[in-house]
């Protein structure tokens, strides 16, 4: 890219930068699902701030909320002190909680990132249970701080570091397509649940007094891998019976992404702790932990932090939640999800390189495989990261921004705004097919 801004970024920004390597554009403006670069080229944005932009870019209720804060001279920063806005935002969040939590749950505002929320959740359950170890899942992702990385089951991101947090035990996630037990389908989930239960009851298993289990109901960075509904129910039963707090990381799945406000609602379960970030701030940085009252064993001031009072984020978050309710955005998620799945499943039959299409709501993954590789015990070809990168690059050239994740970076991940229209979805899918075709030719 010849652009001077891009050159400056490449020269001056950390080598750890990620997205700019795949999407070498300089964004000038953005509205809804569309990003426009400094050359005037437009892109459909199916990354949407890694799932942050529930209503897309610059939705008018979000920009109006920002203007309102400024016009009324509301304080921009108050630490964790109260404001009418904060109270209203809290009430709005409580109104979308399951009945069981509506009256009794506690909320804690944390630092601005998802990782801040996850860190707080772990401290919370450690304080409440005095347990030591944390149970997490293979392929899971919880952040980039030391503790959240320790709980993320992706070695490639952390194996070069020395020890992070010693007491994490990884459990098998019910990844039905690449089944860790070699059975696949529904049986994957049954065996996984049985295995977890056995492990927790086996006093010689090496798991010391867990303080909690942390799980994503759909692994996001892990490749949009949904856990079966029955498995989630089983996990809730197993943890409840043993008094182990169940922490659901809703950082990516939360606030409508999967077609329900909270993704655990699909399984009709209620976790002990919910971590929210991304969409809950309505485009701006925010994270909160919501938890059952009995876990509130903090001492006063036990978990502090300067930026727990992002007032602007509360205004945009409140506006987003209200809009979602009033305009039944969840209905759109369901309709668009069906549209995506119908088309992508069609592509699966057309292109041998598409091994699996999966996800929930508007959190969708397409796993790319190598038909000249050796099949695994389930009869699936191996992951094909190189081709996935090539398809991503063709998508970009054709005007579609789409993220890659999963093992061997072989999953193309759709995370569009929840307000994406039927027409935009059709266009996105059109570009996607064109790009797959170009990449395999
Ligand atoms: N948990 C999950 C499930 C996530 O997807 C992410 C971010 N992709 C995080 C935690 C960490 O959030 P952040 O990047 O804001 O720290």
From TrEMBL:
Name recorded for this polypeptide: Diaminobutyrate--2-oxoglutarate transaminase
Enzyme class: transferase
Any Pfam family: Aminotran_3
Transmembrane segments: none
UniProt xrefs under InterPro entries: Aminotrans_3 (IPR005814), Aminotrans_3_PPA_site (IPR049704), Dat (IPR004637), PyrdxlP-dep_Trfase (IPR015424), PyrdxlP-dep_Trfase_major (IPR015421), PyrdxlP-dep_Trfase_small (IPR015422)
GO molecular function (one): diaminobutyrate-2-oxoglutarate transaminase activity
Needed co-factor(s): pyridoxal 5'-phosphate
Native source organism of the sequence: Paenibacillus arenosi
Lineage: Bacteria, Bacillati, Bacillota, Bacilli, Bacillales
